[in-house]
Amino acid sequence: MAWGGHWTRHIGHTTKMAQDHLPWGVVVPFFIIAAFLNKIIQKVRPSAVFTSTELLVIFGMAGIGSALPSYFMAHLISNIAAPHYYPSPENGWAIDLLPNLAKWAVVTDRQALRWFFEGLPRGASIPWHAWAVPLFWRMSLVGAVASFCYCTVAILRKQWVEHERLAFPLMALPLHASRPKEPDEEGFWTIGFMNSHLFWIGAAIGSFAILWNIIGYFVPLFPEIPRGAGQIQFGTHYPPVLTRIYPLIIGSVYFIDLDISLTMWVFRLLITLEMGLLNRLGVDIGPTHGAGNTLFENWNDLGALLLIIPWSLWMAREHLTAVFRKAWNGDPSIDDSRELIPYRGALLGWMGSALFIVAWCIASGMSLLTAIVFFTFVVIIWLGVTRMSIEGGMVSTRPIHAQTATFHILGAVNMRPTGIVAMAMTRTWHRDMKTALIAPTANAVRLFDALREHRLRLGLAVAIAVVVVAGGSAWYAIVTGYQTGAYNYGSIYADSVTSTFDEAVAYIRDPYAVKRFRALWTLLGFGTVSAMALLRYIFPWWPLHPIGFVTATTYPAKIVPFSIFISWLAKLIILRAGGIQLYRKAIPFFLGLMLGYFGGVAISFVIDVIWFPGEGHSLGLY
Questions:
Q1: For residue range 113-134, what is the model confidence (pLDDT) as tens digits?
Q2: Spatial distance between the Cα atoms of 198 and 584, rounded to a whole number of angstroms
Q3: In angstroms, rounded to a whole number, what is the distance separating the alpha carbons of residues 495 and 487?
Q4: Of 311, 310, 339, which is closest to residue 327 (Cα–Cα)?
Q5: Residue 473 and residue 5 in contact, taking contact as beta carbons nearer than 8 Å
Q6: What is the mean pLDDT of residues 514-524?
Q7: What is d(CA 452, CA 524) in angstroms, rounded to the nearest whole number?
Q8: What is the pLDDT of residue 286?
C-alpha cells in the first residue's frame, strides 16, 4: 500500500490504489487471499486456511493504512518541501510567507529542495539530514492524529455498533466474504456468495463496461461505453444533474437504509433546484456549474453537521457518562473488558493526542483561540465524515474544510500572519476528507468485533499498519522525488501546494478578502436538518433522514445521484415484492456489481503496468 498509493497516483498515472473509504487496493488483494489463496491452501494444507477473523483483521489493517499514501502523505511531503523552493518576485513568498513560517516544520536547504523537485545530480546522494527535523515533527503529528482517531472510535464503538446499530454498509463486502460457507452449501468457492449465479451475473454487469473500454486502450477508434446518458438540465441557471451509472455505488447503496438513500437523491435534486433559483434571483452563491462542490453546498453541509454531531453526542450521553465513570473511578458495574482500549486509556489517549495537536498548531504560529476553534471544526467534520461512511455508506466524502470555516468564523483580519501561515501547514492532515483516517478506522472497528478480547494485539496491528504505510510512503515519495524530480508528479507537488501558500499570502495582504457573509448559509443546513429531525420525532413514518441531507451536500454525491436512485428503487421493489427473504437472496448480485467493478479496475491496472507504464488510464471509483 505504501508503494502502490504513491506509484499509481504520481508515477504510473493509473487508477489510484488508495483514494477513498473503500479502495480497490484493499478490496482486490483481500479477495485474492480470501477466494484464491485460501482455496489453494485448503487443497494443500486445510489446517492453515485463513479464518474469518484473520481475514477481517487483514482487511481492517489494509483499510486503515489506505487512508495515508495517495493524498495524505503526498500533501505532507509537498507541504514540507514547497515553501523554500517556489518563492519568486511574482508570488511574494519571500516577503509575506517565509518570515511567518515555522522553520522546524519545513525543509530550508535550497539545494536539497532543488534536487528533490528537479532530480538528483549523478553521483550525489539524498540529503536526508535536511529532512530529518521537519519529518520528525510532521510524523509525530501524524502519530497524534492516528492516536486521536483510534481513541475516538474506541470510545464511541459501543454506541455506534450496539446501541445505535449502524449499518456500516461499506463493510458488507468483507463481512460477507469472510463468512464461512454453510455445511450444506454446495459450490467450488470457499466464499459462499461466489457460488451463486446471481453473483456472477452482477460481476459481469459491473465489469463489462471497463473490459469493453480496455479494447480502446489499444484501438483508439474503438467505440467507448460512456458512464452515463448525459445530463438533465432544468435551465441555464441550474446546475446539471448527472446520469452516470457506477456499479460500485449501486452495490454499496443497496446496504443503506431506504430512508437514507431516498433522502440522498431527493435532496440532491432539491439542492440543484435551490441553487438554480438563487442564481436566477441574482444571489451571490459562487460558481455552481463546476465539477466539485460549491461553497453554498459546503456551508449547508457544515450547518447540518453543527446540529447532527452535537445531537448524536447528546443521544450518546448515557454511554459517554459510563465511559467517564469507568475512566475516572473504575466503576465495576461498567464492563470495558472487550473494548478496543480500556476506557481510561482511551480517554487519556484522546485528551493527550488532542492536546498535542493543539500545541503543535500553536507552536507553528496559531493563537490559542485560533487553534481551539480550528480543531473544534476538525473534530466536528471528522465525526461527520465518519457518520456519512458508517451510516450513509458513501465511498468518498468531501465536506467543507475546517480551515475555510475558521477563516470565515474568526475572520482573517483577526488572525495574525503566523496563524494564517500555520493554517496552510495543516492542509496536509486535514485536507482530502476522502482519505480522513477516522472513517476507515471506524469501519475497521466493525470488522474487529470478533477479536476484541485480544485488544492489545489489535492495537498493535493498527499501529503497525499506520507506521508501515506512513513511514514507507514518506520514504518512497522522497526517494522517487530525488530520482525523477517531484515536480514531474504535477498537481499535489505543483499547483495544489502553491495555491495553498498563495492563499495564505493573499489573506495576509488583504484579510478583508474573506467573504464572511457566506458563513450565514450554515443556517440553511442547520434549519433543514432541524426540521427533519423534528418531523422524524413527531411522525415515526417520516421518510427523510438527516444524515441523507448531509451526504447529499458533499462531493461526490452530486455526481452519483442517478446511481443512488437506481439502487434505492431496486431495493424498494425487492422488499415490496419479496420482503426480507428476497432481499437476502439478492445480496450476491449487488456484491457482484461491486466486485465486478473492482475486478475490472484491477485488470485495467495490470494492463497499464505492462503496456502503458507512466501513461495509464485512471478510472474513478465513484
A1: 999 999 999 989 999 999 999 9
A2: 12
A3: 10
A4: 339
A5: yes
A6: 86
A7: 42
A8: 79
C-alpha cell of residue 397:
466524502
Residue in this structure with the C-alpha cell 496536509, named with its chain if needed:
428
The neighbour count for residue 600, using CB atoms within 10 Å, is 24
Alpha helices in 316-342 (DSSP H): 317-329
The cell numbers describing 154, all together, are: 474506541
Banded pLDDT at 586 (limits 50, 70, 90): very high
* Residue 186, in any domain of the structure: no
- Residues 138, 102: Cα–Cα separation, whole Å: 12
Q: Taking the CA atoms of 383, 165, 555 and 172 in sequence, report the sign of the dihedral they define.
A: positive
Give the total residue count for the chain: 622
Q: Pick from 18-27, 47-56, 171-180, 360-369 the range whose average pLDDT is largest.
A: 360-369
- What torsion, rounded to 10 degrees, do the Cα atoms 308, 310, 314, 319 define? 100
List of residues 6+ apart from 499 with CB closer than 8 A: none
User: Greatest CA separation found in the chain?
Assistant: 75
Q: For residues 285 and 289, give the distance between their C-alpha atoms in angstroms, rounded to a whole number.
A: 11
Instruction: Give CA–CA dist 501/423, Å, rounded.
Output: 10
* Separation CA 55–CA 541 (nearest Å): 39
DSSP state, 437? T
Q: Where are the alpha helices (DSSP H) in 539-560?
A: 546-552
Cell of 618: 485512471
Report yes or no: 437 and 33 within 8 Å, Cβ to Cβ: no
Q: Is the peptide bond before 180 cis (omega within 30 degrees of 0)?
A: no
Question: Rounded to an integer, what distance in angstroms lies between the CA atom of residue 431 and that of residue 72?
Answer: 8
Predicted structure pTM score: 0.94
Pairing of strands 241-244, 228-232: antiparallel
Structural domain total, the chain? 1
CA-nearest of 273, 145, 267 to 564 is 267
Give the span between the Cα atoms of 360 and 343, in whole angstroms.
Answer: 25
Question: Does residue 622 have a pLDDT over 60?
Answer: no
At position 173, the amino acid (one-letter code) is L
Asked whether residue 562 is assigned to any structural domain, the reply reads yes
Would you say residue 187 lies in a domain? no
| Residue recorded with cell 485495467 | 604
Domain contains 461: yes
- Cell readout for 384 is 461527520
Q: How many angstroms separate the Cα of 555 from the Cα of each of 228, 266, 394, 561, 602?
A: 18, 15, 10, 11, 24
- Can you tell me the distance from the alpha carbon of 435 to that of 466, in angstroms, rounded to the nearest whole number? 13
**Full domain range(s) for residue 438:** 2-180+192-611
* Euclidean distance between CA atoms 315 and 214, whole angstroms: 50
Work out the number of other CB atoms within 10 angstroms of the CB of residue 417.
20
DSSP annotation string for 303-348? HHHHHHHHHHHHHTHHHHHHHHHHHHH--TTS--TTSSS-HHHHHH
